[in-house]
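Thread: Newbie trying to understand structure tokens

Hi all, I'm a second-year student working on a class project, and my supervisor (Dr. K.) asked me to get a predicted structure for one chain before our next meeting. I've only ever worked with sequences, so writing a 3D structure as a token string is new to me. If someone could post the tokens and maybe explain what I'm looking at, I'd be very grateful. Here's the chain:
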Amino acid sequence: MFYSMNKQMQVKTLKYLTIFLSKGGLGEAILQTPFYRALKTDAPNSEIIALIHKNNFKILESNLFIDKVIVYSNFSDLIKKMILLHTIKFSTCFIFDKSWKSNYLARLFINATKYYGFNRRFWESIPLNFKIPYDASKHESAYYIDLLQCTHNHPLTPEVFPKESDFECVKKLFPETRANYIALLAGGANNPGVGDESFRRWPVEKYCELAKDFVKMKYKILLVGGASDIELNTFIEATCAGECINLTGRISLLQSGIALSYASLIITNDSGLMHLTACFNQNILCLLSTSSPVSILLKVRNAHFIWVDKDLYNSNARVFGTFTIPDDKKQLFLKRLTTKMVYNKAIEILSELNIQNR
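---
Reply by user tm_fold:
Sure, no problem. This is what the structure looks like when written as tokens:
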């Protein structure tokens, strides 16, 4: 199914296709959004079409820099959509997935002059005309920008484009007098592509302790998330003595992002919601585990992080997937991160923000 964006009428000179076939990877789809602004900036008269799994469609819906989004639901549907796309001659096909499957499928089914993508292992990138070495040595968004071979710098700040009705919906959920909210994002790390990676989540008991500390400081707790986060967030809510607004499972993905704009500070695991947060709020404390801040630290002004697991880090987890981490090491991630460490860092950030806002 083709989704056309509202655009000003203009003459198109070049056609570009981007492909991201992961059925998970919500955070990765968000990290790709600076690419679209950069491409449209460099080629304003081009037509940009994006092919993406239905699970990630909301990230690109209404994106101002994409002309059409093609959504597929399963492998059979993907092949049908690729066959339809074969009737279009593209200047360049950009392949965002790092796996060989996407590279070979694109070369087989997509009619393009050039095929650009990433090189992890030589044999994976054989179908590509231009390939970027992918080794987790720089920010993830920068890798996508590198595919454009730009002669100038482009911002790496992610962006999504909710509808006005989304803003109105969220506004009704908050009182007219805005309270001081601390948002706790305890869920995530449950990717449809790779399954539940609980080792990337700080233990919920620690979040409960943190929530109680902030309630004592006269803050209210804000909780958002999807259906898989309901149990965790209900557990946290029970410790907040009524000083909590729990929107988990009640609002859409982008509406959750808008709700996070109401928070004075967001404390979050490495998850898709962490990356969504950067589209709406600049005051964020990231609790990192398997990924380096070099790769994924949010590109906003007041993004902070705690990374107690630096000694466990192996770039292969970013390059080839977390399945490369031995099971005995998975049990160690985030276990040395104490409530006191997170609370003290959060108070330090809030104090700095209060000084900046005076």
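A couple of things are worth pointing out once you decode it. The first helix runs from residue 26 to 31. Confidence is low (pLDDT under 50) at residues 1-10. Feel free to ask follow-ups in this thread.
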